[in-house]
Protein backbone atom coordinates (compact mmCIF):
# COMPACT_ATOMS: atom_id res chain seq x y z
CA UNK A 1 0.00 0.00 0.00
CA UNK A 2 1.11 3.53 -0.79
CA UNK A 3 -0.22 6.88 0.41
CA UNK A 4 0.00 10.23 -1.29
CA UNK A 5 -1.62 13.62 -0.91
CA UNK A 6 -2.14 14.27 -4.62
CA UNK A 7 -2.45 11.39 -7.07
CA UNK A 8 -2.19 12.28 -10.77
CA UNK A 9 -3.09 9.68 -13.39
CA UNK A 10 -1.47 10.69 -16.67
CA UNK A 11 1.67 12.62 -17.57
CA UNK A 12 0.48 14.88 -20.38
CA UNK A 13 0.12 18.64 -20.17
CA UNK A 14 -2.98 18.46 -17.92
CA UNK A 15 -1.51 16.06 -15.36
CA UNK A 16 1.95 17.63 -15.20
CA UNK A 17 0.60 21.19 -14.94
CA UNK A 18 -1.54 20.16 -11.96
CA UNK A 19 1.33 18.24 -10.34
CA UNK A 20 3.73 21.18 -10.63
CA UNK A 21 1.28 23.60 -9.06
CA UNK A 22 0.50 21.24 -6.17
CA UNK A 23 4.19 20.56 -5.52
CA UNK A 24 5.05 24.26 -5.50
CA UNK A 25 2.12 25.26 -3.26
CA UNK A 26 2.63 22.37 -0.79
CA UNK A 27 6.36 21.55 -0.59
CA UNK A 28 5.76 19.25 2.40
CA UNK A 29 3.08 17.16 0.69
CA UNK A 30 3.58 14.24 -1.67
CA UNK A 31 2.57 14.38 -5.33
CA UNK A 32 2.51 11.05 -7.16
CA UNK A 33 2.22 10.94 -10.96
CA UNK A 34 1.61 7.56 -12.55
CA UNK A 35 1.60 6.72 -16.25
CA UNK A 36 1.09 3.40 -18.01
CA UNK A 37 3.88 3.89 -20.55
CA UNK A 38 6.90 6.19 -20.78
CA UNK A 39 6.58 9.60 -19.16
CA UNK A 40 6.38 11.44 -22.48
CA UNK A 41 4.11 8.97 -24.33
CA UNK A 42 0.96 11.08 -24.21
CA UNK A 43 -1.54 12.70 -26.57
CA UNK A 44 0.18 16.00 -25.73
CA UNK A 45 3.34 14.76 -27.43
CA UNK A 46 1.55 14.32 -30.78
CA UNK A 47 -0.20 17.72 -30.83
CA UNK A 48 1.42 19.32 -33.87
CA UNK A 49 -0.45 22.53 -34.61
CA UNK A 50 -0.12 24.64 -31.49
CA UNK A 51 -2.06 26.39 -28.76
CA UNK A 52 -4.80 28.92 -29.56
CA UNK A 53 -4.55 32.05 -27.42
CA UNK A 54 -5.26 35.74 -27.84
CA UNK A 55 -1.86 37.40 -27.50
CA UNK A 56 -2.34 40.38 -29.84
CA UNK A 57 -5.37 42.55 -29.14
CA UNK A 58 -4.58 44.81 -32.10
CA UNK A 59 -5.58 42.18 -34.67
CA UNK A 60 -7.53 39.81 -32.42
CA UNK A 61 -9.77 39.88 -29.35
CA UNK A 62 -11.10 37.69 -26.57
CA UNK A 63 -14.59 38.08 -28.01
CA UNK A 64 -13.47 36.84 -31.45
CA UNK A 65 -11.91 33.71 -29.91
CA UNK A 66 -15.06 33.13 -27.84
CA UNK A 67 -17.31 33.42 -30.90
CA UNK A 68 -15.07 31.17 -33.01
CA UNK A 69 -15.27 28.49 -30.30
CA UNK A 70 -19.06 28.80 -29.98
CA UNK A 71 -19.58 28.58 -33.75
CA UNK A 72 -17.37 25.49 -34.03
CA UNK A 73 -19.24 23.87 -31.11
CA UNK A 74 -22.52 24.10 -33.06
CA UNK A 75 -24.74 25.34 -30.24
CA UNK A 76 -23.67 22.94 -27.49
CA UNK A 77 -20.81 24.83 -25.84
CA UNK A 78 -21.25 26.12 -22.31
CA UNK A 79 -20.74 29.83 -22.94
CA UNK A 80 -19.52 30.54 -19.40
CA UNK A 81 -16.87 27.82 -19.70
CA UNK A 82 -15.76 29.08 -23.11
CA UNK A 83 -15.36 32.63 -21.84
CA UNK A 84 -13.44 31.32 -18.83
CA UNK A 85 -11.13 29.33 -21.13
CA UNK A 86 -10.35 32.21 -23.48
CA UNK A 87 -10.02 34.85 -20.74
CA UNK A 88 -7.76 32.81 -18.47
CA UNK A 89 -5.75 31.28 -21.33
CA UNK A 90 -3.11 34.01 -21.79
CA UNK A 91 -1.95 33.73 -18.16
CA UNK A 92 -1.58 29.96 -18.46
CA UNK A 93 0.46 30.30 -21.67
CA UNK A 94 2.73 32.83 -19.97
CA UNK A 95 3.16 30.30 -17.18
CA UNK A 96 4.31 27.48 -19.46
CA UNK A 97 6.70 29.88 -21.18
CA UNK A 98 8.18 30.60 -17.75
CA UNK A 99 8.54 26.83 -17.26
CA UNK A 100 10.67 26.75 -20.40
CA UNK A 101 8.38 26.12 -23.40
CA UNK A 102 9.76 27.75 -26.54
CA UNK A 103 7.33 29.04 -29.16
CA UNK A 104 8.55 30.19 -32.57
CA UNK A 105 9.42 33.88 -32.99
CA UNK A 106 10.12 36.07 -36.01
CA UNK A 107 13.24 38.13 -36.67
CA UNK A 108 11.87 40.96 -34.51
CA UNK A 109 11.43 38.61 -31.55
CA UNK A 110 7.63 38.53 -31.77
CA UNK A 111 5.73 35.26 -31.56
CA UNK A 112 4.76 33.80 -34.92
CA UNK A 113 1.03 33.11 -35.03
CA UNK A 114 -0.63 30.57 -37.30
CA UNK A 115 -4.25 30.25 -38.41
CA UNK A 116 -6.31 27.06 -38.47
CA UNK A 117 -9.82 25.95 -39.38
CA UNK A 118 -12.63 27.89 -37.71
CA UNK A 119 -10.38 30.71 -36.48
CA UNK A 120 -11.06 34.29 -37.59
CA UNK A 121 -7.53 35.49 -36.74
CA UNK A 122 -3.92 34.33 -36.62
CA UNK A 123 -3.61 33.26 -32.97
CA UNK A 124 -1.94 29.83 -32.91
CA UNK A 125 1.39 29.83 -31.06
CA UNK A 126 3.56 26.94 -32.17
CA UNK A 127 6.98 25.31 -32.03
CA UNK A 128 7.50 24.27 -35.66
CA UNK A 129 5.18 21.26 -36.16
CA UNK A 130 5.92 19.61 -32.78
CA UNK A 131 4.31 22.04 -30.34
CA UNK A 132 2.96 19.40 -27.97
CA UNK A 133 6.32 17.66 -27.81
CA UNK A 134 8.01 20.94 -26.87
CA UNK A 135 5.46 21.69 -24.14
CA UNK A 136 5.78 18.14 -22.78
CA UNK A 137 9.59 18.51 -22.71
CA UNK A 138 9.38 21.75 -20.74
CA UNK A 139 6.99 20.31 -18.17
CA UNK A 140 9.00 17.12 -17.62
CA UNK A 141 12.13 19.25 -17.09
CA UNK A 142 10.26 21.39 -14.55
CA UNK A 143 9.05 18.29 -12.69
CA UNK A 144 12.66 17.24 -12.05
CA UNK A 145 13.22 20.34 -9.92
CA UNK A 146 10.62 19.30 -7.31
CA UNK A 147 11.72 16.66 -4.82
CA UNK A 148 8.15 16.07 -3.64
CA UNK A 149 6.99 14.88 -7.09
CA UNK A 150 7.43 11.18 -7.79
CA UNK A 151 6.76 9.94 -11.32
CA UNK A 152 6.18 6.20 -11.76
CA UNK A 153 6.20 4.78 -15.28
CA UNK A 154 4.66 1.53 -16.61
CA UNK A 155 1.95 1.54 -13.95
CA UNK A 156 -1.55 0.65 -15.21
CA UNK A 157 -4.57 1.84 -13.20
CA UNK A 158 -7.18 -0.93 -12.96
CA UNK A 159 -10.00 0.84 -11.14
CA UNK A 160 -10.92 3.75 -8.90
CA UNK A 161 -11.46 2.82 -5.26
CA UNK A 162 -14.85 3.89 -3.87
CA UNK A 163 -17.29 2.71 -1.18
CA UNK A 164 -18.00 -0.21 -3.51
CA UNK A 165 -14.71 -1.77 -2.42
CA UNK A 166 -15.80 -1.54 1.24
CA UNK A 167 -18.74 -3.80 0.41
CA UNK A 168 -21.44 -1.16 -0.10
CA UNK A 169 -23.85 -1.19 -3.02
CA UNK A 170 -22.98 1.84 -5.17
CA UNK A 171 -25.35 2.91 -7.97
CA UNK A 172 -25.80 6.03 -10.10
CA UNK A 173 -28.19 7.38 -7.48
CA UNK A 174 -25.88 6.74 -4.49
CA UNK A 175 -25.17 10.08 -2.79
CA UNK A 176 -21.60 11.16 -2.04
CA UNK A 177 -19.70 8.53 -4.02
CA UNK A 178 -16.09 9.15 -3.02
CA UNK A 179 -12.76 8.25 -4.59
CA UNK A 180 -10.18 7.03 -2.05
CA UNK A 181 -7.45 6.08 -4.50
CA UNK A 182 -6.79 3.40 -7.12
CA UNK A 183 -5.70 -0.19 -7.67
CA UNK A 184 -2.77 -0.36 -10.10
CA UNK A 185 -0.93 -3.07 -11.98
CA UNK A 186 2.79 -2.41 -11.67
CA UNK A 187 4.13 -3.74 -14.96
CA UNK A 188 7.70 -3.96 -13.66
CA UNK A 189 6.85 -6.13 -10.64
CA UNK A 190 3.59 -7.61 -12.03
CA UNK A 191 2.03 -6.95 -8.64
CA UNK A 192 -1.27 -5.17 -8.01
CA UNK A 193 -0.80 -2.31 -5.58
CA UNK A 194 -3.24 -0.19 -3.63
CA UNK A 195 -2.63 3.56 -3.68
CA UNK A 196 -4.60 5.73 -1.26
CA UNK A 197 -4.85 9.45 -1.87
CA UNK A 198 -6.51 12.53 -0.44
CA UNK A 199 -7.12 13.96 -3.93
CA UNK A 200 -7.06 12.20 -7.30
CA UNK A 201 -6.80 13.83 -10.73
CA UNK A 202 -7.64 11.87 -13.86
CA UNK A 203 -5.67 13.23 -16.81
CA UNK A 204 -5.69 9.98 -18.74
CA UNK A 205 -6.14 11.28 -22.28
CA UNK A 206 -8.27 10.23 -25.22
CA UNK A 207 -10.09 7.29 -26.77
CA UNK A 208 -8.84 7.17 -30.37
CA UNK A 209 -7.66 3.57 -30.28
CA UNK A 210 -11.25 2.30 -30.35
CA UNK A 211 -11.10 3.08 -34.07
CA UNK A 212 -9.11 1.24 -36.74
CA UNK A 213 -7.14 4.36 -37.71
CA UNK A 214 -6.39 7.23 -35.34
CA UNK A 215 -3.90 10.02 -34.85
CA UNK A 216 -3.64 9.00 -31.19
CA UNK A 217 -0.80 6.88 -29.75
CA UNK A 218 -1.41 3.31 -28.59
CA UNK A 219 -1.99 4.47 -24.99
CA UNK A 220 -5.21 6.36 -25.92
CA UNK A 221 -7.64 3.65 -24.83
CA UNK A 222 -10.14 5.69 -22.79
CA UNK A 223 -9.07 4.21 -19.45
CA UNK A 224 -10.12 7.18 -17.30
CA UNK A 225 -13.59 7.54 -18.80
CA UNK A 226 -14.22 3.79 -18.53
CA UNK A 227 -13.12 3.70 -14.88
CA UNK A 228 -15.38 6.61 -13.93
CA UNK A 229 -18.33 4.97 -15.68
CA UNK A 230 -17.73 1.72 -13.77
CA UNK A 231 -17.49 3.73 -10.55
CA UNK A 232 -20.97 5.19 -11.33
CA UNK A 233 -19.70 8.66 -12.17
CA UNK A 234 -21.37 10.82 -14.82
CA UNK A 235 -20.22 10.63 -18.44
CA UNK A 236 -21.60 12.89 -21.18
CA UNK A 237 -21.58 13.65 -24.93
CA UNK A 238 -19.47 10.66 -26.01
CA UNK A 239 -21.09 10.69 -29.45
CA UNK A 240 -18.93 13.66 -30.45
CA UNK A 241 -15.75 12.02 -31.75
CA UNK A 242 -13.68 14.37 -33.86
CA UNK A 243 -12.06 12.93 -36.97
CA UNK A 244 -9.08 14.98 -38.04
CA UNK A 245 -9.57 15.61 -41.77
CA UNK A 246 -5.96 15.16 -42.83
CA UNK A 247 -4.07 12.16 -41.55
CA UNK A 248 -1.42 10.82 -43.92
CA UNK A 249 -2.91 7.92 -45.89
CA UNK A 250 -0.70 4.83 -45.96
CA UNK A 251 -2.29 1.70 -47.53
CA UNK A 252 -3.16 -1.06 -45.05
CA UNK A 253 -2.27 0.98 -41.98
CA UNK A 254 -3.97 0.12 -38.67
CA UNK A 255 -3.45 2.02 -35.45
CA UNK A 256 -1.66 5.36 -35.25
CA UNK A 257 -1.62 7.44 -38.43
CA UNK A 258 0.75 10.33 -39.00
CA UNK A 259 -1.02 13.68 -38.62
CA UNK A 260 -0.77 16.43 -41.24
CA UNK A 261 -1.55 19.42 -39.06
CA UNK A 262 -4.32 21.83 -39.98
CA UNK A 263 -1.72 24.58 -39.84
CA UNK A 264 -0.56 23.40 -43.29
CA UNK A 265 -3.93 24.49 -44.69
CA UNK A 266 -3.55 27.68 -42.68
CA UNK A 267 -0.41 28.37 -44.70
CA UNK A 268 -2.26 27.87 -47.99
CA UNK A 269 -2.50 24.12 -48.71
CA UNK A 270 -5.60 23.08 -50.69
CA UNK A 271 -7.64 19.87 -50.56
CA UNK A 272 -8.27 18.34 -53.99
CA UNK A 273 -10.28 15.35 -55.19
CA UNK A 274 -9.05 12.83 -57.75
CA UNK A 275 -10.10 15.11 -60.61
CA UNK A 276 -7.87 17.81 -59.14
CA UNK A 277 -10.80 20.01 -58.07
CA UNK A 278 -10.51 22.10 -54.87
CA UNK A 279 -13.86 20.77 -53.66
CA UNK A 280 -14.09 22.65 -50.35
CA UNK A 281 -15.02 25.91 -52.10
CA UNK A 282 -18.31 24.20 -53.06
CA UNK A 283 -18.96 23.13 -49.47
CA UNK A 284 -18.31 26.12 -47.21
CA UNK A 285 -17.44 29.80 -47.58
CA UNK A 286 -14.40 29.22 -45.35
CA UNK A 287 -13.20 26.59 -47.85
CA UNK A 288 -10.25 24.51 -46.56
CA UNK A 289 -10.33 26.32 -43.19
CA UNK A 290 -13.89 25.42 -42.27
CA UNK A 291 -14.29 23.67 -38.87
CA UNK A 292 -13.12 20.07 -38.74
CA UNK A 293 -16.54 18.41 -38.70
CA UNK A 294 -17.44 20.08 -42.02
CA UNK A 295 -14.09 19.32 -43.69
CA UNK A 296 -14.04 15.68 -42.52
CA UNK A 297 -17.57 15.04 -43.84
CA UNK A 298 -16.70 16.68 -47.15
CA UNK A 299 -13.63 14.45 -47.55
CA UNK A 300 -15.69 11.40 -46.58
CA UNK A 301 -18.25 12.30 -49.27
CA UNK A 302 -15.52 12.71 -51.92
CA UNK A 303 -14.00 9.34 -51.00
CA UNK A 304 -17.38 7.63 -51.35
CA UNK A 305 -18.01 9.29 -54.74
CA UNK A 306 -14.65 8.22 -56.15
CA UNK A 307 -14.41 4.85 -54.42
CA UNK A 308 -10.90 5.83 -53.30
CA UNK A 309 -9.58 5.72 -49.74
CA UNK A 310 -8.05 9.20 -49.74
CA UNK A 311 -8.08 12.68 -51.25
CA UNK A 312 -5.12 14.93 -52.05
CA UNK A 313 -3.58 17.78 -50.05
CA UNK A 314 -1.83 20.20 -52.40
CA UNK A 315 1.03 22.07 -50.68
CA UNK A 316 2.91 22.97 -53.85
CA UNK A 317 1.96 26.65 -53.73
CA UNK A 318 3.57 27.11 -50.29
CA UNK A 319 7.10 28.50 -50.45
CA UNK A 320 9.42 25.46 -50.06
CA UNK A 321 11.76 27.24 -47.63
CA UNK A 322 8.80 28.33 -45.51
CA UNK A 323 7.32 24.81 -45.52
CA UNK A 324 10.58 23.14 -44.46
CA UNK A 325 11.06 25.72 -41.69
CA UNK A 326 7.55 25.51 -40.22
CA UNK A 327 6.81 21.83 -40.90
CA UNK A 328 10.14 19.97 -40.84
CA UNK A 329 8.69 16.78 -39.34
CA UNK A 330 5.94 16.57 -41.95
CA UNK A 331 8.40 17.29 -44.76
CA UNK A 332 10.78 14.54 -43.62
CA UNK A 333 7.99 12.02 -43.02
CA UNK A 334 6.55 12.53 -46.50
CA UNK A 335 10.01 12.39 -48.07
CA UNK A 336 10.63 9.07 -46.29
CA UNK A 337 7.74 7.48 -48.21
CA UNK A 338 8.71 9.06 -51.53
CA UNK A 339 6.61 12.24 -51.50
CA UNK A 340 8.28 15.60 -52.11
CA UNK A 341 5.59 17.98 -50.84
CA UNK A 342 7.06 20.88 -52.82
CA UNK A 343 6.23 19.04 -56.06
CA UNK A 344 3.73 16.29 -55.23
CA UNK A 345 0.34 16.08 -53.51
CA UNK A 346 -0.01 14.32 -50.14
CA UNK A 347 -2.64 11.53 -49.86
CA UNK A 348 -4.79 12.22 -46.80
CA UNK A 349 -7.88 10.74 -45.13
CA UNK A 350 -9.78 11.45 -41.91
CA UNK A 351 -8.74 9.57 -38.76
CA UNK A 352 -10.20 9.47 -35.23
CA UNK A 353 -8.59 12.32 -33.36
CA UNK A 354 -10.33 13.80 -30.31
CA UNK A 355 -13.21 13.11 -27.93
CA UNK A 356 -15.28 16.20 -27.13
CA UNK A 357 -17.25 14.40 -24.43
CA UNK A 358 -16.04 12.46 -21.40
CA UNK A 359 -16.17 12.73 -17.62
CA UNK A 360 -18.66 15.41 -16.67
CA UNK A 361 -16.94 18.17 -14.66
CA UNK A 362 -17.91 21.54 -13.22
CA UNK A 363 -16.08 24.85 -13.58
CA UNK A 364 -13.41 23.64 -11.11
CA UNK A 365 -12.76 20.36 -12.89
CA UNK A 366 -14.55 18.37 -10.17
CA UNK A 367 -16.35 15.21 -11.30
CA UNK A 368 -19.59 13.84 -9.88
CA UNK A 369 -17.44 11.63 -7.61
CA UNK A 370 -16.09 13.42 -4.55
CA UNK A 371 -12.32 14.00 -4.29
CA UNK A 372 -11.95 13.12 -7.98
CA UNK A 373 -11.05 15.72 -10.59
CA UNK A 374 -10.71 15.27 -14.34
CA UNK A 375 -8.80 17.38 -16.82
CA UNK A 376 -7.65 17.29 -20.44
CA UNK A 377 -9.24 15.12 -23.11
CA UNK A 378 -10.83 12.66 -20.66
CA UNK A 379 -12.95 15.50 -19.22
CA UNK A 380 -16.10 17.10 -20.59
CA UNK A 381 -15.86 20.71 -19.44
CA UNK A 382 -18.47 22.11 -21.81
CA UNK A 383 -15.87 24.06 -23.78
CA UNK A 384 -15.99 22.06 -27.02
CA UNK A 385 -19.69 21.39 -27.41
CA UNK A 386 -20.41 19.30 -30.51
CA UNK A 387 -17.02 19.99 -32.17
CA UNK A 388 -13.65 21.20 -30.91
CA UNK A 389 -12.13 24.34 -32.40
CA UNK A 390 -8.60 23.56 -33.61
CA UNK A 391 -5.80 24.07 -31.05
CA UNK A 392 -8.15 24.76 -28.13
CA UNK A 393 -7.22 21.45 -26.46
CA UNK A 394 -3.79 22.37 -25.10
CA UNK A 395 -5.22 25.63 -23.80
CA UNK A 396 -8.11 23.79 -22.13
CA UNK A 397 -5.72 21.38 -20.43
CA UNK A 398 -3.68 24.22 -18.91
CA UNK A 399 -6.65 26.37 -17.87
CA UNK A 400 -8.60 23.57 -16.21
CA UNK A 401 -5.52 21.98 -14.63
CA UNK A 402 -5.07 25.32 -12.86
CA UNK A 403 -8.73 25.40 -11.82
CA UNK A 404 -8.53 21.81 -10.50
CA UNK A 405 -5.51 22.85 -8.45
CA UNK A 406 -7.24 26.04 -7.26
CA UNK A 407 -10.14 24.01 -5.89
CA UNK A 408 -8.12 21.09 -4.50
CA UNK A 409 -5.79 23.32 -2.48
CA UNK A 410 -8.75 24.74 -0.54
CA UNK A 411 -9.88 21.34 0.73
CA UNK A 412 -6.74 19.17 0.93
CA UNK A 413 -6.30 19.81 4.67
CA UNK A 414 -9.81 18.51 5.44
CA UNK A 415 -9.31 15.14 3.70
CA UNK A 416 -7.95 11.94 5.23
CA UNK A 417 -7.09 8.44 4.04
CA UNK A 418 -9.54 5.53 4.15
CA UNK A 419 -7.63 2.63 5.67
CA UNK A 420 -10.64 0.27 5.49
CA UNK A 421 -9.99 -0.45 1.82
CA UNK A 422 -9.02 -4.10 1.26
CA UNK A 423 -6.07 -5.31 -0.82
CA UNK A 424 -6.74 -6.49 -4.37
CA UNK A 425 -7.89 -10.11 -4.56
CA UNK A 426 -7.06 -12.34 -7.53
CA UNK A 427 -8.50 -15.48 -5.95
CA UNK A 428 -9.82 -18.00 -8.47
CA UNK A 429 -8.08 -16.51 -11.50
CA UNK A 430 -5.50 -18.17 -13.74
CA UNK A 431 -3.07 -16.94 -16.40
CA UNK A 432 -4.70 -16.51 -19.83
CA UNK A 433 -4.02 -19.47 -22.10
CA UNK A 434 -4.50 -17.73 -25.47
CA UNK A 435 -3.78 -14.05 -26.18
CA UNK A 436 -5.74 -14.35 -29.44
CA UNK A 437 -8.92 -14.10 -27.35
CA UNK A 438 -7.85 -10.54 -26.57
CA UNK A 439 -6.21 -9.50 -29.84
CA UNK A 440 -9.03 -10.74 -32.05
CA UNK A 441 -11.66 -9.01 -29.90
CA UNK A 442 -9.71 -5.77 -30.20
CA UNK A 443 -9.69 -6.05 -34.02
CA UNK A 444 -13.44 -6.72 -33.99
CA UNK A 445 -14.07 -3.71 -31.78
CA UNK A 446 -12.07 -1.36 -34.01
CA UNK A 447 -13.78 -2.73 -37.14
CA UNK A 448 -17.25 -2.27 -35.61
CA UNK A 449 -16.56 1.30 -34.51
CA UNK A 450 -14.94 2.32 -37.80
CA UNK A 451 -17.62 0.80 -40.04
CA UNK A 452 -20.74 1.63 -38.02
CA UNK A 453 -19.92 4.61 -35.78
CA UNK A 454 -17.60 6.74 -37.89
CA UNK A 455 -17.98 10.16 -39.51
CA UNK A 456 -21.46 9.31 -40.88
CA UNK A 457 -23.93 7.11 -38.97
CA UNK A 458 -27.52 5.91 -39.09
CA UNK A 459 -29.86 4.03 -36.77
CA UNK A 460 -29.35 0.62 -38.38
CA UNK A 461 -25.56 0.88 -38.10
CA UNK A 462 -25.83 1.97 -34.47
CA UNK A 463 -28.17 -0.95 -33.66
CA UNK A 464 -25.77 -3.43 -35.26
CA UNK A 465 -22.82 -1.92 -33.40
CA UNK A 466 -24.73 -2.16 -30.12
CA UNK A 467 -25.56 -5.87 -30.55
CA UNK A 468 -22.00 -6.78 -31.50
CA UNK A 469 -20.52 -4.77 -28.63
CA UNK A 470 -22.85 -6.54 -26.18
CA UNK A 471 -21.36 -9.89 -27.23
CA UNK A 472 -17.79 -8.59 -27.00
CA UNK A 473 -18.53 -7.20 -23.54
CA UNK A 474 -19.92 -10.53 -22.29
CA UNK A 475 -16.92 -12.47 -23.61
CA UNK A 476 -14.40 -9.99 -22.21
CA UNK A 477 -16.06 -9.75 -18.79
CA UNK A 478 -15.95 -13.53 -18.49
CA UNK A 479 -12.26 -13.42 -19.38
CA UNK A 480 -11.70 -10.65 -16.82
CA UNK A 481 -13.41 -12.60 -14.05
CA UNK A 482 -11.49 -15.82 -14.71
CA UNK A 483 -7.96 -14.76 -15.65
CA UNK A 484 -5.22 -12.70 -14.08
CA UNK A 485 -5.20 -9.15 -15.37
CA UNK A 486 -2.81 -7.90 -18.03
CA UNK A 487 -2.46 -4.49 -19.70
CA UNK A 488 -3.91 -5.93 -22.92
CA UNK A 489 -7.00 -7.29 -21.17
CA UNK A 490 -7.52 -4.11 -19.16
CA UNK A 491 -7.27 -1.92 -22.26
CA UNK A 492 -9.67 -4.13 -24.20
CA UNK A 493 -12.16 -3.99 -21.35
CA UNK A 494 -11.91 -0.20 -21.21
CA UNK A 495 -12.21 0.22 -24.97
CA UNK A 496 -15.34 -1.93 -25.16
CA UNK A 497 -16.85 0.31 -22.48
CA UNK A 498 -15.87 3.39 -24.51
CA UNK A 499 -17.41 1.90 -27.65
CA UNK A 500 -20.62 1.23 -25.72
CA UNK A 501 -20.73 4.82 -24.42
CA UNK A 502 -20.19 6.30 -27.89
CA UNK A 503 -22.91 4.12 -29.42
CA UNK A 504 -25.36 4.74 -26.57
CA UNK A 505 -24.98 8.51 -26.71
CA UNK A 506 -25.17 8.47 -30.51
CA UNK A 507 -28.39 6.43 -30.35
CA UNK A 508 -30.01 8.94 -28.00
CA UNK A 509 -29.19 11.97 -30.17
CA UNK A 510 -31.96 12.07 -32.77
CA UNK A 511 -30.43 14.88 -34.82
CA UNK A 512 -27.27 15.76 -36.72
CA UNK A 513 -25.07 18.24 -34.89
CA UNK A 514 -21.37 18.96 -35.08
CA UNK A 515 -19.37 15.73 -35.14
CA UNK A 516 -22.47 13.53 -34.89
CA UNK A 517 -24.02 13.13 -38.35
CA UNK A 518 -26.92 10.68 -38.62
CA UNK A 519 -28.38 10.29 -42.13
CA UNK A 520 -31.76 9.37 -40.59
CA UNK A 521 -31.86 12.82 -38.93
CA UNK A 522 -29.90 15.07 -41.31
CA UNK A 523 -31.04 18.33 -39.70
CA UNK A 524 -30.26 19.78 -36.29
CA UNK A 525 -33.20 19.59 -33.89
CA UNK A 526 -34.38 22.35 -31.57
CA UNK A 527 -31.21 21.82 -29.56
CA UNK A 528 -31.06 18.46 -27.81
CA UNK A 529 -29.00 19.17 -24.71
CA UNK A 530 -26.12 17.17 -23.22
CA UNK A 531 -26.63 13.41 -23.11
CA UNK A 532 -25.46 12.08 -19.75
CA UNK A 533 -24.91 8.40 -18.92
Report on this structure:
The chain is of the alpha/beta class. It folds into three domains: 2-239 and 356-414, FAD/NAD(P)-binding domain (3-Layer(bba) Sandwich); 249-350, Succinate dehydrogenase/fumarate reductase flavoprotein, catalytic domain (Flavocytochrome C3, Chain A, domain 1, Alpha-Beta Complex); 436-518, Fumarate reductase/succinate dehydrogenase flavoprotein-like, C-terminal domain (Methane Monooxygenase Hydroxylase, Chain G, domain 1, Up-down Bundle), CATH 1.20.58. It contains 13 helices and 20 strands. The strands form six sheets. Strands 1, 2, 5, 6, 7, 8 and 17 form a seven-stranded mixed beta sheet that branches. It has a four-stranded antiparallel beta sheet with strand order 11-15-14-13, covered by helices on one side. α11 (436-452) packs antiparallel against α12 (459-482), α11 packs parallel to α13 and α12 runs antiparallel to α13. The longest helix has 24 residues, at 459-482.
How are the secondary structure elements laid out?
Layout: E1 2-9, H1 13-25, E2 31-34, E3 51-52, H2 62-72, H3 79-98, E4 124-125, H4 131-143, E5 149-152, E6 155-161, E7 181-186, E8 191-202, E9 213-214, H5 223-230, E10 235-236, E11 241-248, E12 255-256, H6 263-266, E13 270-272, H7 292-306, E14 311-314, H8 320-326, H9 328-336, E15 346-355, E16 358-360, E17 372-374, E18 379-380, H10 393-411, H11 436-452, E19 456-457, H12 459-482, H13 487-508, E20 517-518
Parallel strand pairs: 1-2, 1-8, 2-5, 8-17, 9-12, 16-18, 19-20
Antiparallel strand pairs: 3-4, 6-7, 7-8, 10-16, 11-15, 13-14, 14-15
Helix pairs in contact: 1-4, 1-10, 2-3, 3-10, 5-13, 8-9, 11-12, 11-13, 12-13
Amino acid sequence: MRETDFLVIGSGIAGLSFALKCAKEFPDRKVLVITKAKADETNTKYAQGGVAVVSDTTHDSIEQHVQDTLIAGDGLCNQNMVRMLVTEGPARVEEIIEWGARFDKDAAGEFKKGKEGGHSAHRILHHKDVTGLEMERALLEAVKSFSNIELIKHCFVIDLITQHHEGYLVTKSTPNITCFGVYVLNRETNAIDKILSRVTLLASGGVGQVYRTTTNPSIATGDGVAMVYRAKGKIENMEFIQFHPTALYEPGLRGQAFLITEAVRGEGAILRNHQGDDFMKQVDARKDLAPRDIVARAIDAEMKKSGMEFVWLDCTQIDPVQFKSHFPTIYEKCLSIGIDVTKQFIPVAPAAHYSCGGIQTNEWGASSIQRLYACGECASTGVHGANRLASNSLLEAMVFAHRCFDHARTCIDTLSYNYAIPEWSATGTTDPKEMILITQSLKELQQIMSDYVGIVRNDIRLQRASRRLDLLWEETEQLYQNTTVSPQLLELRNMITIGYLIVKCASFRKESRGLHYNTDYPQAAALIQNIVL
